[in-house]
Design goal:
8 strands; alpha/beta; binds zinc ion
């Protein structure tokens, strides 16, 4: 199966600011670990360097007023009225290059969708993507531009039937909202319950409206759910619905803030549970646009997405992280050299 991996060195050239949980360094760390494990080779044809999305691409979902405000705030200085668009709060700081960063991430997800649509790749992975909280006219939850919505919208415009699966610790509220009233997209989100975690939505009774009734599926999980409960919930909620919906393409958000060491959420998932779900998505997907998502323990983000990339390519990842990598990134918080399930 043909795979593509979207990556730009510019991904980690942006900084949300000291003390912000989202570190773009996690993308460099993941990329370096994938290479160190031999899962990408020098001049690998699978690596596609994305271009930033154009303004008109963003307007497929976002309002012109909001895009104007992002553009005006790109210098890193707040402009009057920015707060009304969710900009400048602790979660969504105005940092230098904020708009450039958002356009680049969105460009990578759009390219991933285009590669899959054209048949150039059966699977395309954008580790920087999955910014699922952004709304059409407002930043939310570290997300400025909703790249999953843009990727799905591109696929719909090309006549594809799309299912969206979101296994981030947080409810995929922005994606759900974008397709809440249509039966053209099936959205399924498994997450920590909104009673204990941002954004406070994603309950079972949120099932869609109008033509979209029944096409939004939410599986809220209790804190401390762990692999067993999370994977059981996935197995009960996802495969039969996907088989019934018969998508041409699955777009998935593979957030790893579900992990037991994550500082923001409390789901206690390990690489074992995560990889089981990634493998199930692979077996369900005729074509697959895979996106990153949350994940705030950078060592575990790198481990998890390295393993996901191995699964996408049907290859075995090594048991141990190479020593040279451990030495180079000794400050990144790897507790030991195990690639899988080394979290206790
Ligand atoms: Zn999250």
């Amino acid at each position: 199966m043909n795979t593509a991996y979207l990556y730009s060195d510019a991904f980690h050239g942006f900084d949300y600011g000291a003390g912000h949980p989202l570190k773009t360094f996690r993308l460099k760390l993941t990329h370096e670990l994938i290479k160190a494990c031999g899962l990408l080779v020098p001049d690998d044809p699978r690596v596609i360097v994305p271009a930033p999305a154009k303004r008109e691409d963003l307007l497929a979902f976002h309002t012109p007023e909001y895009i104007d405000m992002l553009e005006a705030s790109n210098s890193g200085k707040a402009v009057p009225g920015a707060a009304a668009y969710g900009l400048g709060s602790g979660d969504n700081p105005i940092f230098p290059g904020m708009y450039d960063w958002s356009r680049l991430v969105a460009g990578a997800s759009l390219k991933a969708a285009a590669l899959v649509d054209s048949g150039e790749a059966a699977i395309a992975f954008n580790i920087a993507g999955g910014l699922h909280h952004a709304l059409s006219g407002r930043a939310s939850g570290f997300c400025y531009i909703n790249d999953p919505v843009l990727a799905i919208t591109l696929l719909l415009a090309r006549g594809r039937r799309v299912a969206y699966i979101d296994i981030d610790a947080h409810h995929g509220d922005g994606v759900q909202a974008a397709f809440y009233d249509t039966d053209k997209v099936l959205t399924i989100s498994l997450h920590e319950t909104g009673t204990t975690l941002f954004p406070g939505t994603g309950f079972e009774q949120e099932t869609g409206e109008g033509a979209g009734k029944g096409y939004s599926v939410n599986v809220p999980l209790p804190p401390e759910a762990g692999d067993e409960l999370f994977v059981r919930a996935f197995t009960e909620a996802v495969p039969q619905r996907i088989e019934r919906f018969r998508p041409d393409v699955i777009v998935s958000q593979l957030g790893v803030d579900t992990f037991r060491s994550d500082p923001l959420a409390h789901l206690n998932v390990t690489t074992e549970g995560f990889c089981t779900m990634v493998g199930m998505i692979k077996s369900l997907a005729p074509k697959w646009v895979a996106l990153g998502g949350g994940g705030y323990d950078v060592a575990n983000v790198a481990r998890a997405w390295t393993l996901a990339w191995a699964i996408m390519n049907d290859v075995q990842a090594p048991e141990e992280i190479p020593l040279s990598f451990m030495e180079q990134f000794s400050g990144a918080g790897f507790p030991d050299r195990k690639l899988r399930d080394a979290f206790s």
